[in-house]
Amino acid sequence: VAVRPIRLYPDPILKRPTAPVDLTDPALPDLVQDLLDSLEASPGVALAAPQIGHPVRMIVVDVTRKKGAHGHGRVVLINPRVLHQDGPRVVREGCLSVPDYTGNVRRFEQTVVEGTSPDGRVVILTASGFEAQAYQHEIDHLDGTLFLDRLDSLSTDLFRRRGR
Amino acid sequence: MLSVYGADRPGIVAAIARAVADHNGNITDLNTRVIGSPNRPVYAMVLEIHMPGGPQSEAFQAALERLKPTLGVDITLRPIESVNL
């Protein structure tokens, strides 16, 4: 029920694998709301719980926060996992936790993700393009993986953002 | 592909190179950069390595795990995937 500060690399919480969420935990609704409030206050399209200081498996994605982007709208997924992905390609991406840089990483054009919604329903969704990239990026966070870990070359694939 | 990130300090390159050599590996490419902000510099190094027994050698992975706390760095090892187009 609050906007939490975004943890920045090299905060160690970003590099640790996270724990599954207990769906009966009475603190769960507050954590969901913190994640939603923190995304709302951020310039990003998605957040993972460890980015706001909770080392558990929960993400929120809403690519429609970016002008012109299409997708499923705002989705909170608890204990999400990738069921299938296809169509490898190299894309440029950044991260709220690595604010000054972007990098070229390999992601998949299509991804099928399964998880549980905050009201306990099993959700399976198919995302493509930018939205698929967002889900892959956020689920990476739950395993302690940053886009930095997926770079092939620091000299050709890592870029400092302009105007900083 | 081996990624190493952490606070800058002397000996990171030496220790990583030693671990690769101790496990009969070859470093085929290596690049480094200092990223992060001026008051919180982060040393970054990405190495392409060839391990004779494949990258999944448990002894090599264990050696890297031991280096993490010693050097104060994060180390990620992943196979090189190539896409045929």
Summarize the structure.
The complex is a heterodimer of chains A (164) and B (85). Chain A is 17% helix and 35% strand.
Explain what you see.
The complex is a heterodimer of chains A (164) and B (85). Chain A is built from two helices and six strands. In chain A, strand 3 and strand 4 form a beta hairpin. Chain A is globular, with a radius of gyration of 15 Å. Chain A is an alpha+beta fold. The model of chain A has no long low-confidence stretch (mean pLDDT 95). By secondary structure, chain B is an alpha+beta fold. The longest helix of chain B has 14 residues, at 58-71. The model of chain B has no long low-confidence stretch (mean pLDDT 89). Chain A binds chain B through residues 9-10, 15, 88, 100-101, 106, 145, 148-155, 158, and chain B through 1, 3, 5-7, 29, 31-33, 35-37, 40, 42, 44-46, 74, 76, 78, 81, 83.
Q: Work out the helicity level of chain B.
A: 25-40%
Which outline of chain B best applies? Answer: globular
Which segments of chain A are poorly predicted (pLDDT under 50) over 5 or more consecutive residues? none
What is the total tally of β strands of chain B?
4
Residue share in helices of chain A? 10-25%
List the uncertain runs of chain B: none
Number of DSSP helical runs of chain A: 2
Largest sheet of chain B: 4 strands, antiparallel
Give me the oligomer status.
heterodimer
